[in-house]
């Protein structure tokens, strides 16, 4: 798995987004940012946001070097003026503590500004590229360089440029171009194949589509999955285009404020598209072939397999279209598989609710193939399917390290009833199914079917409760390993499941802040 499409242009700013929104994507790749002290987006300088990018797991930042100019289109004061600025940028970066993290992007859409894609303009661009390339390398010999960054792929221009670059020892480390028009949906694979055929250097050179998406594609799960699928299939990287606000992960995150561009505001609310990108980052194992109805049609997807588990993300349709999908999964063993399908909806630039369960169930495996029906899919939504072997559920008992009592549903069926503790009875009341969900776990009691629930209680010592299947953050728990035990941290409240030093059978189980006490450590014992 490449995860190439989890990238951004001006995705980070000085105050936003929050770390949680970035790390929640699991595998962020690259972000393009303004040059140091550049004239564009003054609260998103590459050298200023580098600390957050490193901290949250990005692979690198590419520097939009022409952003040193304030105007748009970039004012052209001649190559000598630009070379002075290239030198200034390179001298700043070479002394940066994260020097190796940066990639120099020399030109941005040179086919539309300063140069052209043919004739004298293209020849001049090639010659000026060589001057800038050599200037950077003279200051930063280990520099990684990206280019040429055309506004769209042009076969003859890219052939001319990459043959020139190969013959003049100025090949970029990463090829870049933009995909900002309808042509992407019909021409991307053809353009990709052409690039790979130009010469020996382009056959294996990394590619970054360092601006992708039309204005109407941002925050739109059903459209964005079509980009992600093509990038994963070809193992290229991509960065969402900048059309609205910087520091928003290109509209994957939203703000509750009415002024969405307020400096200092924190963009820490997911839009519907954020969940699609999170699903993508959560896929594990290796990519397996997924065959859509048409290679260039709107319904697209990505599939991965890790052991016997299969994950699929999919979506896309024609405007306002509702359609049925059948997932035909081959190469399976066993007699049945269990499946759950979730939906994330288009919410524009507004906060989104958590994905809802679209359908779930068990289907037979016939000759190694399972067929899963997903009815009434909508064109603007995206979907995630998790397919697992249909073997028996594994249950766990949770024994408190301090008291020796077991987490117990107490046979209580009322929504909001407290969860208790009891000695070793091995009753179904003490059996809990751990259901993985977006990096957290929900704990369902075998006897009652209710879920362990923090109940939205923030007070230290308040009871932990039980509730029906709400899929709320109150029911999601992070399992934190602790020397053979686990601590359970509630996603909604941040409090930890705590035995409260209560040793009497039937005592209620509570919640407490992070104390790291034995009261908060639980031994997981599997049962069947």
Defining key terms:
six-stranded antiparallel β-sheet, alpha/beta, 30 strands, eight-stranded parallel β-sheet, 528 residues
Tell me the radius of gyration: 26 Å
Sheet with most strands: 8 strands, parallel
Derived from helix and strand composition plus strand pairing, the structural class reads: alpha/beta
| Measured distance between first and last alpha carbons | 34 Å
Helix content: 10-25%
- Biggest β-sheet: strands ordered side by side in the sheet: 1-2-3-4-5-6-7-8
Shape: elongated
The share of residues in extended strands comes to: 25-35%
Quick one: how many beta strands?
Answer: 30
Describe the structure.
Strand 7, helix 7 (221-234) and strand 8 (237-240) form a beta-alpha-beta unit. The protein has helices at 19-23, 46-55, 79-94, 119-139, 155-167, 184-196, 221-234, 272-282, and strands spanning 8-9, 30-34, 60-64, 102-105, 144-150, 174-179, 207-212, 237-240, 253-254, 269-270, 286-288, 300-306, 309-315, 322-329, 336-344, 356-364, 370-378, 382-389, 395-400, 406-408, 420-422, 432-437, 440-445, 451-453, 465-467, 477-482, 485-490, 496-498, 510-512, 522-527. The strands form nine sheets. It has an eight-stranded parallel beta sheet, covered by helices on one side. It has a six-stranded antiparallel beta sheet with strand order 11-12-13-18-15-16. Strands 23-22-19-30 form a four-stranded antiparallel beta sheet, with no helix packed on it. The chain is an alpha/beta fold. The two termini are 34 Å apart. Helix 3 (79-94) packs parallel to helix 4 (119-139) and helix 6 packs parallel to helix 7 (221-234). The longest helix is centred in the N-terminal third of the chain and has 21 residues, at 119-139.
């Amino acid at each position: 798995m490449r995860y190439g499409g989890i990238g951004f242009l001006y995705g980070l700013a000085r105050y936003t987004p929050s770390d949680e929104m970035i790390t929640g994507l699991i595998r962020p790749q690259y972000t393009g940012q303004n040059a140091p002290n550049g004239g564009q987006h003054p609260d998103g300088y590459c050298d200023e946001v580098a600390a957050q990018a490193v901290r949250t797991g990005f692979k690198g930042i590419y520097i939009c070097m022409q952003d040193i100019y304030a105007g748009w289109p970039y004012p052209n004061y001649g190559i000598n003026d630009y070379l002075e600025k290239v030198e200034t940028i390179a001298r700043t970066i070479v002394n940066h503590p994260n020097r190796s993290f940066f990639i120099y992007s020399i030109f941005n859409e040179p086919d539309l500004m300063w140069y052209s894609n043919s004739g004298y303009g293209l020849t001049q661009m090639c010659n000026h590229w060589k001057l800038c390339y050599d200037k950077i390398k003279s200051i930063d010999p280990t520099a990684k360089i990206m280019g040429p960054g055309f506004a769209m792929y042009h076969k003859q221009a890219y052939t001319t440029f990459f043959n020139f670059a190969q013959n003049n020892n100025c090949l970029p480390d990463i090829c870049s171009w933009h995909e900002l028009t309808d042509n992407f949906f019909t021409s991307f694979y053809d353009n990709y194949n052409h690039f790979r055929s130009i010469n020996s250097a382009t056959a294996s050179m990394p590619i970054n589509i360092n601006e992708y998406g039309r204005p109407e594609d941002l925050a739109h799960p059903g459209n964005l999955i079509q980009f992600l699928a093509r990038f994963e299939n070809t193992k290229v990287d991509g960065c969402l285009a900048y059309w609205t606000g910087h520091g928003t992960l290109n509209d994957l995150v939203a703000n509750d404020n009415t002024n969405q561009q307020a400096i200092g505001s924190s963009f820490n609310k997911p839009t519907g598209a954020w969940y699609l990108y999170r699903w993508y980052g959560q896929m594990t194992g290796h990519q397996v072939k997924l065959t859509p109805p048409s290679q260039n049609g709107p319904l697209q997807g990505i599939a991965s397999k890790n052991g016997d588990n299969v994950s699929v993300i999919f979506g896309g349709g024609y405007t306002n279209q509702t359609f049925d999908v059948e997932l035909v999964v081959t190469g399976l063993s066993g007699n049945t598989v269990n499946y759950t399908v979730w939906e994330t909806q288009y919410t524009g630039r507004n906060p989104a609710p958590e994905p809802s369960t679209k359908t779930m169930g068990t289907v037979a495996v016939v000759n190694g193939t399972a067929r899963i029906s997903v009815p009434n899919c909508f064109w603007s939504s995206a979907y995630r399917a998790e397919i697992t072997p249909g073997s028996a559920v594994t249950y766990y008992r949770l024994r408190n390290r301090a008291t020796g009592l077991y987490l117990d549903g107490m046979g209580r069926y009322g929504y909001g009833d407290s969860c208790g503790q009891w000695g070793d009875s091995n009753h179904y009341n003490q059996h809990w199914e751990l259901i993985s969900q977006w990096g957290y776990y929900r704990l369902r009691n075998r006897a009652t079917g209710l879920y362990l629930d923090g109940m939205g209680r923030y007070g230290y010592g308040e009871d932990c409760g039980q509730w029906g299947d709400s899929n709320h953050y109150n029911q999601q728990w992070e399992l934190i390993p602790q020397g053979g035990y686990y601590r359970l941290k509630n996603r909604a409240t941040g409090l930890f499941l705590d035995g409260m030093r209560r040793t009497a059978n039937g005592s209620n189980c509570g919640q407490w802040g992070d104390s790291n006490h034995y009261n908060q450590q639980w031994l997981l014992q599997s049962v069947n």
